[in-house]
Amino acid sequence: MSVTDKVKWSSRNVASWVLFLVTVFVISYLGWMYFHSRSKTGDTCTRNSDCSSKLCYVEDGRHMRYCTERCTGDGDCPQGWSCLQPPLLPKGMYICIRR
Predict the structure, then answer these.
(1) How many angstroms separate the CA atoms of 57 and 55, rounded?
(2) Start-to-end C-alpha separation, the chain
(3) Domain-by-domain residue ranges, the chain?
(4) Of 19, 69, 71, 97, which sits most exposed with the smallest number of CB within 10 A?
């Protein structure tokens, strides 16, 4: 093998690594965007998968749907919200609900 062949091999090797790293970066970025582009607590939603918490609450009487989150007390919820157990949820499951 001549010196020129070694240089070509090195260039090809570097190009492969660059392509690999770019691919990993793009896949990581798309995954991050998928998980962080979901709605946060208080945002409107139509189904559970719209929300980062996977909880889209349908408020009776107001015909409102919004993302919420699990809680153990009012301190876990945003200001102006309460930690309650709606009747249709399993026993012991509390979520943040607008007051």
Answers:
(1) 6
(2) 77
(3) 1-37, 48-98
(4) 19
- For 36-77, what is each residue's pLDDT tens digit? 556 889 999 999 988 989 999 998 777 789 999 999 999 999
- Residue 95 contacts by C-beta under 8 Å, 6 or more apart in sequence? 55, 57, 68, 69, 70, 71, 83, 84, 85, 86, 89
Local structure of residue 89 (DSSP, 8 states): S
The tokens describing 9, both together, are 């091999």
Task: Specify whether the CB–CB gap between 93 and 84 falls below 8 A.
Answer: no
Alpha-carbon gap, residue 31 to 26, rounded angstroms: 9
Task: Look at the pTM and tell me if it is higher than 0.85.
Answer: no
The token pair that represents 66 in the structure block:
């919004």
